[in-house]
Amino acid sequence: MFKIFKNLSPFSGTLTLVLFLLIFQSLADLYLPTLMSDIVDIGIIQGNTSYIYKQGLFMLAVSITSAAAMIYSSFLSARVATGLGKILRSKVFSRIESYSLNEFNLFGTASLITRTTNDVNQVQQVLIVILRMMVTAPITCIGGIALAVAKDAKLSGIFAIILPLLTIVLFLIAKKGIPLFNAMQIKTDTLNRIFREGLTGVKVIRAFDQGEYEEARFSQANRDFTDTSIRVNRLMASTMPLMMLIMNVSTIAIVWFGGIRIDHGNMQVGDLMAFIQYAMLIMFSLVMMSFIFIMIPRAEASAKRINEVLDIIPEISDSEETKTPSHNSGQLEFKNVVFRYPGAEDPALSKVSFTAQAGKTTAIIGGTGSGKSTLANLILRFYDVEQGEILLNGIDIRHMSQKDLRSRIGFVSQKTVLFSGTVSENIQYGKITASENEIIQAAGMAQATEFINEAKDNYNFIISQGGSNVSGGQKQRIAIARALIRKPEIYLFDDSFSALDYKTDQQLRSALKKDTERTTIIIAQRVSTVMEADQIIVLDQGEVISTGKHTELINSCSIYREIVSSQFSEEEIS
Asked: Does pTM top 0.85 for this prediction?
């Protein structure tokens, strides 16, 4: 928790002012019972009307000033807490953005979303409570005890019973509450994960008629979350009645024993009234501390989860001395690259070596699990190689800044991702400064012009979340246009033509072939997509089996011939 609060340094001046206001408010509240005692003992009992008016007006001024200090300190506390929430969300989001894919998988999307939203809100709320109560409660408690003892030391002996009793109750509540609050955060993650999977996988769920199964799965998670919430709320609900019971019994005891002392002439009526108010202030301060003890365990659990995100140092980072290639040819070379995914026994890639020549088209083909997409992840440095090196224009990509590396690559992933917004905005995402003419040109090269012009509002057609209102082929073409508009050194297509019909596929490859300034790397399973490439690399079980052109590989590589045979008839092959 304290590690999180180090982010409050920009608000040090505001926090000092809040501290001053809260101390002033606490002292003013402690002064009011003394004023009331004087009004009763000197003004009312002695019939001194002028004294009553004079002290009453002063008491009113103190009350108004105390209220103003409380309101302003509350406003500043909320402002500081909101500012901390903003800083934490920004830091968590920035850290997550710097994660490698391995670190993403470590937490999971649902958990990261919960940590960025719900957990930050928990810390934000508890900070408001701390700023409002953690200063005033101790001052009020200690000051109230001191002033109560000053009024009547013997009657103050009641506190020797009340305070330990309250402390024990608060300790038991905190002890029982901490595990429940920790469990609440875990169950929130689970609920979010199942809900997210149910939304993103709705097509698969309906296609396999698993709606009832998913409802049962969600109901189970929802029931677990609800049961834990009920236990937490039951615990919190029992706190206030217990506190009020102790406070009321204490008041009765003070009035009973105080009446006896007044009857014996050891105490005045005004002092008893002030003593009762001090007792209420003391016990109310303990109630405030109970709220802190209730909220801090939950916030502590949230702070721990936030720190887990912030404490992870991304395994992929820029080297201290980054290098920039002296030329921009776009030549990419793999040298004896070995890579295995975290926790895997066998490497996904083993001793992979090849060169994608500048301005040429290199195709990579192979069966499922052969390591094709792993190559794309390594080129973009989503992962780092275990052995060997990947050179771009003669420089190891680990010695380049990630921003520089990725600015030189136009990437289209296997799973097309579009963002909410217009078609134009989605294409422009590849180059924020792109002009309207560049957008149209990129869409034309990606063979997307026809369906865009047929759409309502053309380039201003709104793409819904996830691109659910366009077909798979249309999504792929918009994503391809997004990569083409960058005009990078390297085009990297990871099975990006799979949703295109053969005619569109051929037209797109012809358009790419005319762009001789850029290196094109096409990862595909469809032979028709790769057969015209300048070189084809055949992968099998993470190893380069053979390299060559289509006609060469048919005769020299049995695995490539098997792939071709599975997609073409013997007449077409010959």
From this structure: no
